[in-house]
Every structure is written in C-alpha cells, then in structure tokens.
Amino acid sequence: MRKTILAYIAVVLVTLSAPVLAQEAPQQENKTSPAPQAGHFYRLTYTVEELSESGRIINTRTYATNLEIGGGPARIRVGNRVPIAEGSGGQYRYFDFGINIDSNHAEERNGKLALEVTAEMNDAILPSSQGVQGEPTVRQNKWSANVLVPIRKPTVIFSSDNLQDKGKVQVELTVTPIE
After folding, report:
1. By the number of CB atoms within 10 A of the CB, which of 106, 133, 149, 153 ranks highest?
2. Do 98 and 47 have their domain in common?
3. Both 99 and 71 in a single domain?
4. Is pLDDT above 50 for 24?
5. Spatial separation of the C-alpha atoms in residues 147 and 14, rounded to whole Å
6. 8 and 52: one domain?
7. With contact defined as beta carbons under 8 Å apart, do 140 and 130 qualify?
C-alpha cells in the first residue's frame, strides 16, 4: 500500500510539473537572440582608398554587391587583361590588372555582420611612365580575413602600406540591410 501511494504521488507531481516546465522553456529561448533566417539580404559597399603619406585621400573607388544570409558567396571582378611585350621577338605576356573581392559565410551577430572577405588588387607601373626601359613593376595587395562589421557604419577592414611610397591603401566596408 505504501508503494502504491508513493507511486501515485510521483505521477501527480510529474503531471503537475509538466505544464510549468513547458512554460519556462519558451522564456529561456527568448533570452538568446533568434537565429538569423536564410533569405535576409545585405548591401555590401566596398570603398578602396589610396592615401598619401600625409593621410590625404588621393584616389577612391567604390564597388557594391548584395549578399544573402545562408546563400552563396558574393563576388566582384573588375579589371583588364593587358598584353605586355616580352623582348623584341613580338611575344607578349598577358597580365590581369584590377580588383577581386569575395564575400562569403555571412551571419548576423548582435547587430553586426560577420563574414569572410578576400580582396586582391593588382596594377602595374609601366616603364614608359617612369622614363625607363624594361619590365613593368607589378603591384599586388592581397588580404583575407573574417571580419565583424557594424550595420550602417563604414569600417576599415584592411589597410597596408603602399610599397612604392609612404602612402597607404585601405579597404572600407559599409553594410546596409535590404528591407
């Protein structure tokens, strides 16, 4: 008889506590931020700036694309394929000059956008522009990193010295939600 009463009390306690536990579970879920949903779009605006040694901006280029959370990568490709004479035999080498920017693996985190960015810039200084004969000087800047960017706030994500002088090259990213 004693075992039957204890079993009955246990069943009653489990039955009564189930609704209380069910009510507490949603409250615990609300404490954490909701997972970002696939299909949310952002506009990514990249600004590439060349700065003089005094810090003054001497050249600016802007590139923009859209990126979907949970979607594939966003890629920007801008440039020229340039033939450069190789010796006096009429042979040419072709170089790709321009900019490539890849954005991938985006996710929302506390009002910011986390994503993987790879940027590559290639250009050349031709000998004729320097009054010298010979091969062109090819300049290349390459960056790759996971970045965390505040929404609607321009943020410098990459920066490096310019190898030909004491200036700098930097890449700034502005993230804007697309409603």
Report:
1. 106
2. yes
3. yes
4. no
5. 48
6. no
7. no
33-60 residue pLDDT tens: 455 456 789 999 999 999 999 999 999 9
Q: Are residues 5 and 65 in the same domain?
A: no
Q: How far apart are CA 112 and CA 151, in angstroms?
A: 5
Do residues 66 and 109 share a domain?
A: yes
pLDDT (0 to 100) of residue 5: 46
Q: How far is CA 21 from CA 9, 18, 107, in A?
A: 18, 5, 31
Report the mean per-residue pLDDT for the chain: 80
* pLDDT higher at 45 or 127: 45
Indicate the SS3 state at residue 176: strand
Residue 12 shares a structural domain with residue 96: no
**What is the extent of the structural domain holding 67?**
41-178
Please tell me whether residues 23 and 47 are part of one structural domain.
no
Q: Which residue has the tokens 């000087």?
A: 137
What would the pLDDT profile of 63-87 be if each residue is shown by its tens digit?
999 999 988 999 999 999 988 777 7
End-to-end CA distance of the chain: 67
Asked if residue 98 and residue 28 are part of one domain, the reply reads no
Kindly give the residue spans of alpha helices, DSSP state H, lying in the chain: 2-31
